[in-house]
Each structure stands twice: as C-alpha cells, then as structure tokens.
Amino acid sequence: MISQFFVLSQRGDNIVFRDYRGEVQKGSAEIFFRKVKFWKEDGQEEAPPVFNLDGVNYFHVKVVGLFFVATTRVNVSPSLVLELLQRIARVIKDYLGILNEDSLRKNFVLVYELLDEVIDFGYVQTTSTEMLKSYVFNEPIVIDAARLQSLGPASIFMQGGKRMPGTAVTKSVVATEPGGRTREEIFVDIIEKISITFSSSGYILTSEIDGTIQMKSYLTGNPEIRVALNDDLGIGKDGRPTYDYRSSSGSGAVILDDCNFHESVHLDSFDTDKTLSLVPPDGEFTVMNYRMTQEFTPPFRINTLIEEAGALKAEVIIKVRAEFSSSITANTIMVLMPLPKYTSRASFELEPGAVGQTMDFKEANKRLEWGLKKIVGGSEHTLRAKLTFSQESHGNITKESGPVSMTFTIPMYNASRLQVKYLQIAKKSGTYNPYRWVRYVTQANSYVARI
Amino acid sequence: MSGHDSKYFSTTKKGEIPELKEELNSQYKDKRKDAVKKVIAAMTVGKDVSSLFTDVVNCMQTENLELKKLVYLYLINYAKSQPDLAILAVNTFVKDSQDPNPLIRALAVRTMGCIRVDKITEYLCDPLQRCLKDDDPYVRKTAAICVAKLYDINAELVEDRGFLESLKDLISDNNPMVVANAVAALAEIQENSNSPVFEITSHTLSKLLTALNECTEWGQVFILDALSRYKAADAREAENIVERVTPRLQHANCAVVLSAVKMILQQMELISSTDVVRNLCKKMAPPLVTLLSAEPEIQYVALRNINLIVQRRPTILAHEIKVFFCKYNDPIYVKMEKLEIMIKLASDRNIDQVLLEFKEYATEVDVDFVRKAVRAIGRCAIKLERAAERCISVLLELIKIKVNYVVQEAIIVIKDIFRRYPNTYESIIATLCESLDTLDEPEAKASMIWIIGEYAERIDNADELLESFLESFPEEPAQVQLQLLTATVKLFLKKPTEGPQQMIQVVLNNATVETDNPDLRDRAYIYWRLLSTDPEAAKDVVLAEKPVISDDSNQLDSTLLDELLANIATLSSVYHKPPETFVTRVKTTAQRTEDDDYPEGSETGYSESSSHAADGVASPPTSSSSVPYSGARQPAPAPAPAPAPPAPVPDLLGDLIGLDNNAIVPIDQPVAPSGPPLPVLLPASSGQGLQICAQLTRQDGQIFYSLLFENGSQIPLDGFMIQFNKNTFGLAAAGPLQVPLLQPGASARTLLPMVMFQNMSQGPPSSLLQVAVKNNQQPVSYFNDKIPLQAFFTEDGRMERGSFLETWRSLPDSNEISKDFPDIVVNSMEATLDRLAASNIFFIAKRKHANQDVFYFSAKIPRGVPFLIELTTVIGTPGVKCAIKTPGPEMAPLFFEAIETLLKG
Question: Which ranges are annotated Pro residues under compositional bias (chain B) (predicted)?
C-alpha cells in the first residue's frame, strides 16, 4: 500500500503528484529529489531504488529520464511497488502513445483520471490498459511523435531501417487515428539482451540471454491469438550439467533455463506443441520472459592487444569481428575501454577506408570510446590507439586498463534461436487480415572482454 | 474537445479567479468542463483556488463522468479546508451513490471515503452499507477499500456499524477483484487493530487459495501476503498449501513470485520430508534467478531477499553462483549486493572462479566497489581454509599494482587473515612493509601497525618501522594511537633493548600526559603499571594467545534472521531490519472496548507482530558488514523514535471501580535487579502460567515495588503493564514497568519506582493493595498485596528526647493505642534496635520498670505523621506490649502489623 505517487522531471519539477493517504508530508517530492541527487557528495553514485529517510520509505524507478516515485510509511512489498511504478509508466504510455514530460503535462487530467483508477487508497486496483478503458473517459492528446524517443525496449525499432513501421510504437492504444479508423495490426517483438564475459584468452567465462516476447495489439474485438514457438523448445536444465559449453552450438534444441508468462497466456498445449494461446489485452505487455545460459554463438568477438613502447608509451589494438551472417547489419556500436589513470594522451589510427566511425579519449574518466555506425555481418574492424603516459607504468598496463565493453543493437537477429513460427489470429471474417509484425532484435546488456 | 490541456496552465491577463468563476457558472456544458479543468490545473501547480468551492460544487450535478470526476478531484483537495461548504456536496454524493450507473455509484463512495470531514463521514455509512452489497463487482470492490478508509477516519464507526462483518462476507464473493480488495482492507484494519479482526482459519485459507487462481496479479500479492501469516497445522497441510502456491512462481510479475517464495519458505519449515524440501528448493531456484533478469530496481530487491534466503538455505542457489557475477553495466547498488552473495556462495569447489572475478572487480573504476571486492577476497580467505593461500596470493598481486586504496584495503583484510590463521602466512610481511609510507587511512595504518607489533620478533627492523610512525603520534587518529601504543609495548616485551625502551618512554608519555583521550590514557596507564611492577606478567597479558576469529561478519543473528525471513518480500527484507525499527505509521486510535479481548499470542498469529516488536528491540544490532548498502552510505533508514505509549490508555481497573488513573506505563528496556525471595502473589495456576512475586520495599529513601515475573506458559510474553487500584497511601507507579520479552520458562526481576498520594482511597486505612498486570498475550491478572507500613517510615523520623516528650504530652490520650504481642520474644536488644533502626524506627530512650524494660522510639510516615512508640518487654521471655501515640490513630492497625513483622525479624 503506498501513500503518494509522483513523477519528477530530471530537474526535480513535479509533473504529477497524487497523495492517496495523507500520511506523508507534502514536501516529500523535494526531499526525495535532494536525497537522490546528492546520494554521495560527488553526485556520482546512484541511489538504491528503495530507501528510508526519516521514517518515509521512497521507491523510485527511472523511465525515459523521469523519476516515477512512490512513498509509504509501512512495511510493504517493495517488488510490488517497483513493479507498479513500471506498470504505471507503461499504462500512461499506452494511453498517450509517447511518454515524456511534455505529453504528461499536456494530458494531466487524463493522467490523474488514470491514477485514480489504478490506485485506490494506496492499493493497486488494476494496471491493465484493457480494463482501464471501461473506467477512463478523458481522450488523450497525442503529441507529435516524429522526433521523440519513446519508452521501452521496443523503441529500438525506430532507429533501424525502413522495414519497421516506425510510428506504430508511439501510437496511443485508445486514441483514434487522424484518418478516423484504426488500423488493425499487432506487433510481436522478440527482444534479447546478451550478457557475456570473455576471458583474456577469448574463452567464454559466462554467457546469458535475457529474452522477452512483447506484444502490442491494436486489434479490435480482442480476437484470440496463437503464438507457436520452436517445436524443440525445452525448459529447465534438468538432466544436463550446469553451464555445459561442450555441446556443439547450432544443432539441437533451444533449452531455456526458466521462463514466465503473462497471466492472459494459456499454456494448455504448450507442452505438446509449444504454442501459447491468449486473448491479448489492449496495450503493450510482456507475453513471456525467458532466460538462457545454453551455449550460443556470440555475435561479436573482441580482440585486444596492448604493446608497451618504451616507459611512457604504449599501443592498444582493438579488433572487433562480427560473427553473424552478412545479410544482417548491427548498428550503433560503441566500444569502450578504460585506460590507466596516468594516460595523458591518445592518438588513433583506423583501417584504411573506414567510414562512420568516431574515436575519442575521454580525459575525465580516462576512457577510450570507439563508435561505429554499423557493422555488416562477417566483417572485422580494427582500431589502433597510441597512448602517452604521464608516469612510468611499471608493467601494469594490462592490469590497470580494461575490460573492453561493447554496446550494440542487431535488428532481425536473435542469438538464442528462439522463434515465433507462426502468429495465428482467430478469424472474424474471410476478409479480416490484420497486419502482423514479428520483429527480432538483440542488444548488448553486459558485453565484456577482459584483457 | 480540442487543443491541449496545457493551455489551462496559461494565465489570463486580468483577475483569473473572477473569470473562472464566470466560466464555471456558464450555461454551456463544455465551457463549464473547460473551466473546471482550468481550476484543477491551477490546483496542481499549487495555486489557491479554494474560493471557487461553491462554484465548482455546483458543477457536480452532471451526467458527464469526465466532469464529475474532475469535480470530485477538486473536492478531495479542498473539502478539508472548507468543511462547512463541503456539506453542500453531501446531497449529490448520496444521490450519486444510488445512481443507476455503477461507475457513478462507485465514484461517489470512493470519493466520500477520501474526504476526511466528519460531516461527510456521517453520511457515508448508509451508502457504504448499500454498496458493499451492490450487484456490480466494481462497486463492491470500491466499497471494500472504502471500509479501510472509514476505519482510518473512525474505527469505532466501522466496528459499530458492522462493516467488518460485511467485509468478511466479501471474502467469499464470486468476483476475485472484490475478494482481493476485501483481503487488503481486512489486512490493513488488522494491522491497526488490537483485537483479532481477520483470522485466517483453514476455511478462509482454502477459499483464498482458490481465489488466488482467478485474481489479477496484484490481488494475488494481497492474498499471498495475507496468507503468509497462516500457520499450517502439520506437514501435510503445509505441503498442500505449497502445492497450490508453487504455480505462482511462473508469474511474470516479480511481486507475485517473491510473495509466493515467502509463502513456500514459511511452509517449508513445517515439512519434514527432506525429499519434498529438496524438490521445493529446486523449484524455487530458477524463478529466483530469473528475478535477476528484471529491471535493476527489482534485481536489487531480489538480491537483498536472496541474501537472507541463502543464509537459511544455502543449497537453493549453491550451483548458481555464476548468475551473481557482476555485469559491467550493473548499477553500483546491484554490484555491491551481488558481491555479498558471491561471498556467501563461495565454496572450495568454485573459489577459483570467484577469485578470478574478484580480481577483475578490484581493478574497476568505482572506488567503493573495488574496496568491497578486496574485502571480499579477505572474507573468502577467512571462510575457506583450503583456499586461504590462493586468496592471499591474489591480494599480493593486487598490492603490487600499487593502487593506493587497493593496497590499504588489502592490508586491512590481511590483518584479519593473520588473526584467523596465526603463524601461517607471515612470509608475506616483507611485501606488506614495502607499502608502508603510502598508507594514509587510519584503519589501514592501524592494521599495519598491529601486524608489526604482533610479529615484531620476525621483522628485523620493526623498531625502525614503528619509530617512523611515532613522530606523528600526537596527530594520529585515536585508533592508530591505540595500535601504536600496543605495538610498541609488544616490541619492547619481545626485544627489550635500548631502542624500544626509549620508544616506550616516548609513547607512554605521549599517551598519558599529552592526550585527552581517556581510552588511550587508561590503556597506557595499565601498560605502565604492568611493566613497572611485573614485566613477566605483562608478557603473559600483552602477548597472550589470541582467540582465532571466524568469518561471522556477514551472518545475521539467528533470531533476527528468523524474523527477517518471515518478512521476505517486504521492505524489512530489503533493509535487513525488523519492521518496527522503521515503520512509523501512527496507529489509528482504535479504541479497545474490552480488555479481555487481548488475543492469545499463539492462536491468532496477529499478536505475533507485537511480540516480535519487543523481540526485535532486544536483539543485538546487526554487524557492520551486514548493514545494507544504503545504510552504509547514510544513517537512513533511521531507527524510528521510540513509539509513544498508545494514545488512549486502557484503564485496567477502570471498569471495576470507576477510577481514572494515568499511571499506566508500558515496558521500556529490561532491567534485572536481584534480591531476596519475594512472596508469591499470583500463582501460575491463576495467572495462566504467569507467576508473579512482589513486595513493596524501601531503598535509599524511596519506595519500590519489587517484582519477579516467571513465565510458565507456552508462549513468549511481552508488553507488560501494571496498574494499582486506589489505596490508602495513593501508591502508584512512578515510571514504566520494565520487563523484557519473557520466553517460556524465563523469569525477570524488576524494581518499579513508586509514588504516593496519586490515587488515594477513601474510608479507613487499609493495608490492601490491589494490583492489575497485563501483557500483550494474556488478559489482565489481578492480585492483592499487603502494604507494609515499614516501607513508608522516612529517614527523617528521629526525634530529640525533648520534642518526643513534648509531642507525647501534646497528644490527647485518645490518641494512644496499645497492643500486646504475647508470642514475640526479644532475645537481643542490640539486634532488635538495629533492625528497627534499619527500618527508620529510631531509638530514643530506655528505662527499667520493675523487671521489664521499656523502650521509646520514634518514626514518621510521609506527610509528617509521627509515631511515638513505647515497647515494653522482658528480654528473653515471650510477650511484648506496644503502645503508640500518633496524630493519625487510624493508622494504628497498620503500624502494629509492621512492628510485629519487624520484631519477629
């Protein structure tokens, strides 16, 4: 049970503030903001998501740069509150199409109406956009989406090529399109985040895929949907050794360690034909989360070489090789490498003919940053950096630099090989043929190579 | 409607309020709606629009839900400041609560519950009663929550009007949303009530478990949390419950998963079959790990909970250590928690992997994280004997990188490793000494100095090393000074040569004369005396073998752990603190009507929380390293100020004799004075197992009630309170009754300071003292005690002979009363005089009358009432006659009781 809910801008302005129980002082938003902003004197460190200050418990999550905050004085379930904050953000986004400071301010009446239905006396009533539609009467004022970043992992679909219907994810679930009639369409996104750690010799120390199947339905009449996954999908690691990397990749079944499902999902036939059936509620929601530690081919290999060149100089060579098919292109790649504290200068050298690459040495945190606009599957890119030190390195350069980490987005690629084999929509009539979008994307979560 | 809401924020040129007023009264619906929106906009940015109250309320009567909601929002905000005008809205509310549209009915009740104005509350009861039985589930679920709102405003009203019963009926509702809200409301009311409101019987249990499958995710959490208080009768029932809860582990909502884990963990305690337990552990592991794939905020909560779970059941995640390896992009608060769990899961089997990770972390950028990683290596060394050597070699590698804070942190942990494995790894001291001059943190310096002192005989230049520190002795922080002092003494005892001798002079001088730190000075003096009187003894003391330490730095005290595990999936499990240390919500003043309603602790499970309260206070603070990361950075979560005694003080004897007393006092901290055996006043047989012995005593001029509580019942007792009925002397407690939580079989003694003339009874003086004692678990026990007058004799009762005679004469003969004690023998006059003097009966004179001795004494009781006493007896033969003269002859019977007791000895 929460006492207050509020949304603060990055600068600490109150955008939304709703007090449900009057138990916590009115100035809590300011107290919260000051505490979080100066968690540590240097302002560097992040405040934990839950903390207690003068008897008031503050919960917060950050969504698109906004603080979603709840307060309470009692011993509530923190996971409930944090999950609720995420869901509120999602519901508001469902309604407004785009979640940001501007859209919140323009729609404050609607937001308050939503908040009154979502929470009563501090108790969550519902966070389902579908249910809320029957109780909420304000119409959203949809703001211009073109140049705005939207919420959630699905936003990555906006960056990529033309094949993604870019406006879809920023479309309100309830508002009618300018043309007057809504387009019948449904989006199923398979989003995977890869965490991997390579040892200095390139051997995989740990690897994990956190995947989620997101759905966003704009279908009228809520028809039943069947989603079929790989026939050979297995769940649970029973019967095979933990972290078995010996089994050859590319063959065999997709084995998930664990997965969980949205409550609307029926699993009656899941065991036999790996099919999920559901009546999707309106709005964006997670059909399924899964986790996999089974061996997979990492999309990138990173090779780092450090060569000392005298007492005050060294050369760093970073090679990145894309291990996926040449029909696929990764984009917005960034390679980061911390350098020794006493590095004073770095000069860079790229391979001949390189385009769309940026290199930088960040003086403040002594970090090398190498950005690449895109990498085509099968290609390899190299960066050479000449470092100058302000003091002798005592042969510790390798220990004091690294690890190399990487962020990237690869559309239409997923490392786990989990697939949506088909997406079946219960037919209303012969001519009913809504748009179906099944999209894959893989991102780096913690992609690290030690040196 | 067109345009953007934000236009409502723009201010108009001239007088905004009059303009709004005009618009609110417009004849056009749309214009009125727009105006209300503008009002709300002004309200949210903090402008005072309360003057528009009447105009806004006039817009309330509309069929337009959008507009109605806006008006209601306004009402909730301003009703409190305009209670008289709020009454204007009542009619519409009551009408709306009977509207054909269920949304309007629900809205009316929901809003009325939020307006904390008495006049509105009065009118809420009838609509609420109707809505609780409404046909529409949306109305019923709103009404269910509204009962909790009403309870918060006026608990008595809820109890009197039978809302609790209606609410309980809703548990069996066919709509799961209604059930969930009823459960939430009941749980909240129970939380704030002292009588059992919401008992979970096996019947409710099965009903709720069934509802669980139908509920929304949030309802599932309400229900699981409410059910987690249920104590299964036996292993079979526990297994049954677990079986029905286990499917919740597959839920995508983390809160559902964690609440299910809590429920399963609790029932597992009852399950004896190791197979079943093992199987459950296996089922819980993957969902727990999956929580770590959620948002970092959820991960943090999950990690704090997992930290507790693995302390109780390490096997659950024994094979999953890899998932706790830190990711490069984890927020720092997640990384810190992962480190803690890695240490807990580290074993001989996985230590190489773990060390490799720690070594990597120790070269990362974040200083706090690096330090913690280095400490983690040390803690693994202490925990795993067979891996100690590998840990040390990693530490040495890190020292060689010469990053200042890494070196210092390493030295601190190496000191602990030396304590854990004495005489094993001293070969590395030389390496440590190389970094001596880079140390600038007190703890690292102190650790290094300790190492030098402890191993002075193996370090050739120990004296030089120590000497280098001595120069700056006066400027060093206290912990370094203390270590320097001890290390120098050790050096001197091990190498009593000239150098160390001079050093010790300097140090002792510095530490005694030139310091104002009492700890340092005292320690220095002890060394000084030891060294000057018996150097051999000094050796035995200072160089004695030290007890080996173990790695308990991360283990919580087991009772605290129990309590925290019972609070899995609550804030308590994130802070690692019992709820009562941070829950500050003031209890609503729920009036208890009958004292006998106190539940038996073991039966309902609700009083558990209060008994845990005392338990938690008494339990020792957690060790420093188990303080949550958040706590380490800041004093929060601040311990709540000691809760004030509950506002409406229950009057134990009030019903009995219509007495209004304020001297009832809650327990505070335990004290346990000892003393002579006390008479049993409340035998265990009539105190439901609780035995109370008590006596009034006088100590240092003050009256105390000396009490001994012995808990012979099967349940822990706490929250003791005491009250005294009106009595002749108006005796009442002067302070709180300090009795700690009494475990079954335990006893506690306490001295309760008393005051007089607080609640005097009328009528003839009586020695009767009626006492009532209660605790959180048992009903009130009453017992009678006798007031011994000797406890009242004051220290200033001595009279000069002259004034004695004068007083004697001045009092009329009717004030003289005498009594014979034919059985009493006075054998030794000295002993008797001493005994009487000890009780403030002062000897004045003695004379012989025939073969009898006549003694004169004086005594005084408070308010200056003197007693002039004449004792006549033959030493050694039975028979004493006592005659007294006093301005208060009505006290004579009490006096004779007292003198009899004293003469008998």
Answer: 636-649
Could you tell me the fold of the domain covering B654-787? Immunoglobulin-like (2.60.40)
Kindly state whether B360 is in contact with chain A, defined as any CB-CB distance less than 8 angstroms: yes
Q: Does A34 touch chain B (CB under 8 A)?
A: no
The closest CB to that of B637, out of A17, A52, A257, belongs to A52
State which residue of chain B sits closest to A195, comparing Cα positions.
B327
Q: Which two tokens stand for residue B479?
A: 């912990």
Which of B110, B327, B368 has the highest number of chain A CBs within 10 A, making it the mutation to test binding with A? Answer: B327
pLDDT digits (tens, 9 = 90+) for A146-192: 444 443 444 445 433 333 333 445 677 766 555 555 678 888 999 99
Measured in angstroms, the CA of A433 and the nearest CA of chain B are apart by 30
**Which residue, A380, A402, A381, A201, is CA-closest to A314?**
A402
> Do residue A92 and residue A226 come from a single domain?
no
- Contact B288/A at CB under 8 A: no
Are both A97 and A214 inside the same structural domain?
A: no
Q: Does the beta carbon of B725 lie under 8 angstroms from any beta carbon of chain A? A: no
Q: Which of A320, A121, A192, A276 shows the shortest CA–CA distance to B141?
A: A121
* Tokens encoding B296: 């970092």
Query: Is A1's CB within 8 Å of B188's CB?
Result: yes
DSSP annotation string for A328-374: -EEEEEEEEEE--TTEEEEEEEEPTT--SEEEEEETTTTEEEEEEEE
- Based on the fold, state whether residues A248 and A387 are members of the same structural domain: no
A238, pLDDT greater than 70? no
Do A290 and A423 share a domain, yes or no? Answer: yes
Percent of chain B with pLDDT over 90: 34
B680 confidence band (pLDDT: 50, 70, 90):
confident
What domain range includes position A13? 4-132
Cβ B5–A110 below 8 Å, yes or no?
yes
Q: What's A403's domain CATH number?
A: 2.60.40.1170
Residue A266 contacts B, CB cutoff 8 Å? no
**Rounded-to-integer distance, Cα B512 and Cα B521, Å:** 5
Is it the case that residue B659 has pLDDT exceeding 80?
A: no
Most confidently modeled range among A231-245, B248-262, B691-705: B248-262
- What is d(CA B75, CA B68) in angstroms, rounded to the nearest whole number? 10
Domain B5-242, what fold?
Leucine-rich Repeat Variant (1.25.10)
**ipTM, interface predicted TM-score of the complex:** 0.81
Q: With beta carbons under 8 A apart, name residues in chain B contacting A43.
A: none
Residue A57's domain is classified under what CATH number? 3.30.450.60
- Where is pLDDT greater, at B621 or A339? A339
Residue A246: is it exposed, middle or buried by C-beta count within 10 angstroms (0-12/13-18/19+)?
exposed
